[in-house]
Amino acid sequence: MLLENTGLNGIRSDLGHLDESGDKLGFVRWQWEYRRATYDLKLHDRTSGQDYYLRIATRAIEGKLENPEAILEVEGVYIGRSTFPHGLDYESAIPEPILNAAKQRAQDLKKLLS
User: Fold this and answer.
1) Taking Cα atoms as reference points, which of 108, 107, 111, 102 lies closest to residue 78?
2) What's the pLDDT score for residue 114?
3) What average pLDDT does the segment 50-68 reach?
4) Which Pfam family, an example, fits this chain (predicted)?
């Protein structure tokens, strides 16, 4: 599910600051290559036992990702249910408490990056 109106789309940050800010909130930079990176935050639903991930997709607009001074721009914010062995189902319904937690964490990240 694409999360709209988070205020993160289009925000620019250098890689070092984005890594540090994301780390403070529990995000991990998992997937990355020279020009793109995703930051994932695991959210566990105790009621169902399911895991969900809030994913922040970024693209380098200046430099490459091995350089902490590279400038990244947020391209999209997604949430999905974890699937075995590794993947995300973006079509599943997201429980309200998980969705609220994801939106709050997205707002927290926006504040750190602003």
Assistant:
1) 102
2) 87
3) 93
4) YugN
d(CA 49, CA 46): 5
What does 34-80 look like in DSSP terms, one character per residue?
SSEEEEEEEEE-TTT--EEEEEEEEEEEES-TTSTT-EEEEEEEEEE
Kindly tell me the number of DSSP H helices and DSSP E strands found in the chain: 2, 6
Contact 53, 44 (CB under 8 A): no
Largest CA distance in the chain: 43
Of the candidates 89, 81, 91, the residue with the CA atom closest to the CA atom of residue 43: 81
- φ/ψ of residue 14, rounded to 5: -75, 155
Q: What is the pLDDT of residue 98?
A: 97
Q: Domains along the chain? A: 9-70+79-111 (3.30.310.100)
Rounded Cα distance, 42 and 114, in Å: 23
Output the six-digit token pair for 91. Answer: 């079509």
